[in-house]
Amino acid sequence: MWPIFHKLGSPPWLYAIAGSILRWLLPITLLALVTGAVWGLLFTQPERIQGNSYRIIYIHVPAAVVALAGYYVMALAGAVSLIWRMKMADVAMKAAAPVGAAFTFIALFTGAIWGKPTWGTWWVWDARITSMLILFFLYLGVVALYEAFDNKEAASKACAVLSLVGMVNIPIIYKSVDWWYALHQGATIKFTGESSIDSSMMYPLLLMIGAFYALFTCCLLLNMRVEILQRESRTQWVKKLATKAGRP
Amino acid sequence: MPSSPTGAPLLAARSLCLERGGRQLFRNLSFDILAGQLWQIEGSNGAGKTSLMRILCGLSRYGYEGSVERHVPFLYLGHQSAVKALLTPRENLAFHVSGEGQYGNEQIESALAEVGLYGYEDVASHTLSAGQHRRVNLARLLLSDTSLWLLDEPFTAIDTAGVDALQALLASHVAAGGAVVMTSHQALEVACDVHVLNLGAGATV
Amino acid sequence: MYFDSLQAALEMQGHGMFVWPAYSVTIAVIALLVITPLLRRRKVLRQLEAQARRAQGAPAGRAGGER
Amino acid sequence: MTAPAAGQFCLRLLRRQLLLAVRRPVEIGNPLLFFAMVVALFPLGLGPAPGTLAGFASGVLWITALLSNLLTSDAVFRSDFEDGSLEQLLLAPQPLFLSVLAYIGAHWLTTGLLLALVSPVFALMLNLSTAALGALVASLLIGTALLSLIGGIGASLTVGLKRGGMLISLLILPLYMPVLIFGSAAVQAAVSGLPAGPYLAILGAMLCLAIALAPLAMAAGLRISIDA
Questions:
Q1: Is residue A1 included in any domain, yes or no?
Q2: Which pLDDT tens digit goes with each residue over A88-101?
Q3: Who among D16, D87, D223 is closest to B78 (CB)?
Q4: Inter-axis angle of helices A127-148 and D164-191, nearest 10
Q5: Helix, strand, coil percent content, chain B, rounded in steps of 5
Q6: B7-72+147-205 belongs to which homologous superfamily?
Q7: C10: nearest CA in chain A?
Q8: Measured between alpha carbons, how far is B101 from B83 in angstroms, rounded to an integer?
Q9: Given CB atoms, is C30 within the 8 Å cutoff of chain A?
Q10: Which pTM was predicted?
């Protein structure tokens, strides 16, 4: 096993490296989020058909993209913890689940609000929104399964299996929902189609997508640090860390 | 006393450590189970006897350090009697899920007779007592020809006559070159010598 | 800026009441996502510190795993 | 005496499970009764007008079949877990993912198959056009096997939990949705005169994928649940 992969397995090293990454990544992410939002909200032209309500795209699409990517991160971390029995991969999976669920909730909430001015109803069974709803249930399933086990070691193994099963099913779910949508609705416009917006609107969107990916990484690392502290609470390096916990 | 049996160990345990709820149950426990040996694992309640048995037989695969190699097929009798209440003792043994072998009717009947269940072969198991359920489970010892037996508290709910018969069976199995690892609170009166592994002190033999 | 006044920016030709709540909820969730782990980390560290102090202070007999 | 080969052992397990099911014939009736009662709810809820009922019939029948399958999936491994037989199964020399197929096969034979054969009766109650009965039975035959396999994954993960009943529906309902989509689409296609073949083909493809992958997940799930 090459050294970097092996090092990833040792908690104190991972705790420290996560801390140093966060020190510079978190400020950059928050800065990118603010500039992207202000740019998208206040400086770009409104869209021809939808007017200003399209500005929600700058948080809906990035959240949806990262929510889906988050599930794959969780499932792959689960696979690594199952196959190579790495405790830190368990920690990554456990940390990724709630963060992914939160991003899926953002995508669902903003998608629903966006439906009101565009379609006149609070909830629209658009293919993308429906798949996002199912993804949200998959996330909740993993979180609920983890809480249902008393023995946390078995809990993370069971969640790894469930997230792998989920990962295999996501493409099937997305394709079958698209098929279902086309089957029943016919070719009504898909209001979340990216192709139609022109370049001046594309740049803030790309910035926001990057910012959301960075935000996911930050939240993942933040949660992992807490999880490592809890799991390694009886080791020496955590006790030493706790006693000189004067600093932030 | 047969000469100390040499040859490959039936089961090799290497530096087993188990920690549960903050307490170190045992630490780098290593031993080999050789043919012709009878091992008894002793320890107070909660000393980790059952956990060790489940590690040895491979039921628990995570949560402990160290390794266990089993070189022969083995037979594990756990706390529960693994007897389906809806099936008769004959059906329980004929359709047993442990996948050891396909037993004919006469074998099953003679095994059931030997564990004192003569006449109960075709009675629905839910009418039998817990002790009788365990005897159906013990009948598997007579049926199977695996050499390594891992028994978790085999004497519970068995009357004194049954215990004596079981001890005799263990002795004859060990004498015939098999090996037995069992946990029990009772002292064993068995014809062969007993290797005792005490978990209380966490000592290695 | 596309809008000529703050008031116009708030209204966004009638779509403001959808865009701004969407953004505020998103900001709230993001804030929650960033702040809770930091709070939990401080709580865990403080718990461990208290535990360590109790373990040192306590006589040898009573020491040992708190939980 | 050598241990039986995997295939023979699977058949033996299948006979054992069917024998256990036959010993309690009333329990085989439970999913069918549930199916009948829930189908009877919809006319009460949606009004008896044949026109509206016919429109909903394919969806109602499929959703009810899915829910009754979900109800019975939880108990596939539970009784063996409670009396310790599941531990012995895990220690059997035969590959676990084949043995688990025997459990799921028995579960399908005692629930899904009967449901599919009985469903035309309820279809007529909901005024489903007779042209669609063939597609309904075919889609339910393939679909309930698929549902049993996916339900088995949920059952293997929650078998060790005291209150696993509710949790299993949260875990596997999202995975049931593609099956529902194509199952009811097949029936609707038959109702409107289109060929149901393509949808049944997709259901069949999903079934093959599930037969290949689900047992692996179930075997892993069982080993984890027993180890907890």
A1: no
A2: 899 999 999 999 99
A3: D87
A4: 160
A5: 30, 25, 45
A6: P-loop containing nucleotide triphosphate hydrolases (3.40.50.300)
A7: A42
A8: 17
A9: yes
A10: 0.88
